[in-house]
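Follow-up to my earlier ticket, as requested here are the two runs.
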Amino acid sequence: MVDKQNPHINLNSSTMQVLNTLEKRGINLTDNIAQFIYETAIAESGTAENPLTVKNPLTQAAGIYQFIENDKNNSVTTALNRISTKDNDGNYIYFDELPEWINETKKHKDITKLNKDQQTALFLANLHQQIGTDDLFKNIAKGDKQAKVDMYMQHHYKKDDDNVRAYAESIFFGGN
């Protein structure tokens, strides 16, 4: 299905299905949410020639949002489990039917095999399923730049590092 006001938007895309769930849960889908997604991609994969397949040689983090899958960090597996979450009624939270790409990725765990829509859906669902992120999403939607930094540091980067925080602030406050 295509949105008649925005014909370039595929309403059946995985990202749109995750965003629709956020909206149903009281999070306004403003341009500020879109800007947060874009800025996080810049913070993670920067200006890489192909951000979908970029890999950090030090951490082995990969893709637009730099997910990691190794012995010490299984953020790909965690994100896949979160996007596959079911509600109390047994239905998937984000989808009527789980897209096949999720089951395939659970087998190969290679984030670089996913397209932009899939990586973005995984990123958003991974954040949304964490405790405390609904309020951050709501504040981001209202334009709260500190909420962007907090979301990034607490729920995506997940480490307390002054250098990374300063970098994140330069991205999220700088309006890149």
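Run two:
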Amino acid sequence: MDKTFIKLKKELVDLYNKVKEDSLKTGRPNHGHGLDHDITVAMLSIKIAPNKKVAEMAFVASLFHSTDRRMGKRNIKKTSEIVQNYLKLI
């Protein structure tokens, strides 16, 4: 696993753990756009990021970019609330 990913995961452990917890609550955490997908996107985005700051932003965005799909149906208001709560963990 990429050392930058591991470092960011440690630095943002509260965010990572909350996204993981929410993903597990769905009963299908690795179905399509689940946690495994978000982690893969995070690792790939870190690799192509031109600098550390962009890598950090890409890591954060990648972790919760599937939040709307975890809702079961597209609920913009609820998704927005969840993402805002994630951002408070940063």
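The only thing I checked on run two: The chain has a mean pLDDT of 87. Let me know what else you need.
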